[in-house]
Each structure stands twice: as C-alpha cells, then as structure tokens.
Amino acid sequence: MLRNFNRPITVLLLTAALVPLAGCATNRDTRAARDAQYVARDVNTLYNAAKDRLDKRQYKLAAALFDEVERQHPYSIWARRAQLMSAFSYYADKDHQKSIESARRFLSIHPGNKDAPYAYYLIALNHYEQIEDVTRDQSITKQALDALNELARRYPTTQYAADARLKIDLVNDHLAGKEMEIGRFYQNRKQWLASIVRFRVVVDEYQSTTHTPEALMRLTESYLALGMPEEAKKAAAVLGNNYANTKWYNHAYELIQRHGPAA
Is the pLDDT of residue 79 over 50? Predict the structure, then answer.
C-alpha cells in the first residue's frame, strides 16, 4: 500500500473546523453508547459532543454524531461543516467508502464552497490509501489517479493540489510497476509480442517513472528474441541516450554487441 501522504496537511483543514460552538460543553461522563443514540439535542450540544469524540479519537462515534448534526439541524450553518467533519472522521476510522460518500454529498450540496478543495482531497486520499501492491488488481489505483488528477486540475494553486501532484508521481510509478510485472511474466513464458506491448506502455505512458530504464532494456531483449534487431537497436539507443550510467544500459549494450554492431 502506498503511503507517504502529508498528515499535517490533513490536520490543517481542521484548525477552523474544530472551533467549538458557544454554550454548554458535552457532559464528559456520558457513555459512548448513550452518545450514539438518537436524541433530539440543540446544535451546540450535538456538535460539541461530536468534536469531543473526535478529540478522543473515537472516530466512528464522532462521525455518527456529526451525521446527527446534519440530520437534526439540516438548515443550520453547522450542518455544512458537520458534513465535512463526518467525512474526515470516517477517513480517520479507515472507513473509506463512507468517507467518500460523505465528501461527495458535501460537494453535491455545496459545490462552490471554500472547503470544496478539501472534500476533493479527502476523496483522493481515501482512494490512495486503498492502493494494493502490484500483484493485485489495480482498479483502485486508477481511481486514485483519477481523483488526484481532478483535484490538481480543479484547484491547481491549493496546498492540496501540491500534495496531489506528488502522489500522482507515486501512483504512476505504481501503475508502471504493474505493467513491468506483467511484461516480465510474458517474457518468462517467451511470449515476446505480449511482453513488448507491456514494456511499450511503460515507455510511452510512464516515461518519467523509475521503471523506464528497465522497460527499455526488456524491449531490447524481446525484440532480439523476435528477430527484430533494428527495433532492438532503437530501444537500446534510447536507453543509452537517457540512462547511459545504469546497469540496464550495460546489459542492453552487451546484448546488441552479441547480435551485431553496437547501436
């Protein structure tokens, strides 16, 4: 699973959102189970109860209470904030699907709100943190990439977009790694045409990733195995022009030497 996201950025949004409302504080001795029950309460008491549970890292209960703020007081100015806080609480509880749903509901009701970039950021983070290793299906990885790209496109000057761009590079590297794994699988079975297709995807679509030098070397191998020395020389030449100081170029160069004049 990919990590490396900037937790302080996540917390930064909460600075304003967690300002407690005026009025009586939640009874600290109230049991968690009682807090979760549906009881009609004024917005001050209910919001502060949710904040209290969030402060105590009781994320599931905090999310339920923020949902109650919205349900019991849908026209309150705090309902909008509670929606976003619910999304964050579910995210903190690693309930990614509910967090995404809450954030999307916020965006559907308040698309032009000043906190919309953070809602998009939460959606992207929830997808990002579900990315599996390259041996698994990568559909969630592509969803994460789509969400990160949408955030960067819609709000390019925000701090969230800056973090998204860093994650986009990591996700692309991850997707390239999956293509490499499949390409090597085909190579090991001498299915050269299938391996070439996968390695070309890395070179053409993920050329800025760390996998490109190996992909070019593997293309050299596969083309030579298919009896296509000119194509092999082209791949080796690109490798030499861009990654001459790597072990991948050294190996490709030796292969070309064995099969004829150097590229």
Answer: yes
Strands (E), 42-119: none
* Encoded tokens for 189: 């079975």
Q: How confident is the model at residue 187 (pLDDT cuts 50, 70, 90)?
A: very high
Distance from C-alpha of 14 to C-alpha of 216, rounded to nearest angstrom: 46
In one letter, which amino acid is 238?
V
**Per-residue CA distances from 75 to 72, 170, 246 (Å):** 9, 41, 62
Contact assessment for residue 98 and residue 82, using Cβ atoms and an 8 Å cutoff: no
In Å, how far from its chain's centre is CA 50? 27
Whole-number Å distance between alpha carbons of 99 and 92: 9
The amino acid occupying position 210 is: T
Q: Token pair for residue 111?
A: 């698309």
Contact 164, 151 (CB under 8 A): yes
Domains of the chain: 7-130 (1.25.40.10), 179-259 (1.25.40.10)
Kindly tell me the sign of the dihedral angle through the C-alpha atoms of 36, 41, 47, 51: negative
Query: How many whole angstroms separate alpha carbon 238 and alpha carbon 249?
Result: 9
pLDDT score for 40 = 57
**178/146 Cα distance (integer angstroms):** 17
Rounded Cα gap, residues 69 and 237, in angstroms: 63
Q: Are 167 and 124 in contact (CB under 8 A)?
A: yes
Contact 174, 131 (CB under 8 A): yes
